[in-house]
Amino acid sequence: MGMLFIILVFYLVPFLIVLVALVDILRSDFEPSQNKLIWVIVVILLPILGSILYLIIGRNQRRMPY
Fold first, then answer.
1. Is the dihedral of CA 64, 45, 57, 55 positive or negative?
2. So what's the pLDDT on residue 66?
3. Backbone φ and ψ of 38, nearest 5°
4. Adjacent-strand bridge partners of 62
């Protein structure tokens, strides 16, 4: 039971955070459009930190649909 908890906390949860961030980046439009590429690079190079930064800062940079 303890090993399953460790696997969930240290592998599955960070993977899901990165996956959610990347999917959200790729499905969103940004203003300016270069921000999408910048956020993808940040999340790929710094997976956990980049994903958390995107979810806190980057989501506010998306272009809102009218």
1. positive
2. 61
3. -60, -45
4. 30
Instruction: Determine the Cα–Cα distance for residues 54 and 36; give it in Å rounded to an integer.
Output: 10
φ/ψ of 30, rounded to 5, equals: -120, 155
Calpha distance 44→50 (Å, rounded): 8
Inform me whether the pLDDT recorded for 40 exceeds 80.
Answer: yes
What's the helix, strand, coil split of the chain in %, to 5? 80, 5, 20
What count of Cα atoms within 13 Å lies in the side-chain half-sphere of residue 22? 15
Distance of alpha carbon 1 from its chain centroid, rounded? 29
Q: Which amino acid is at 9?
A: V
pTM, 2 dp: 0.84
Peptide bond into 47 cis (omega under 30): no
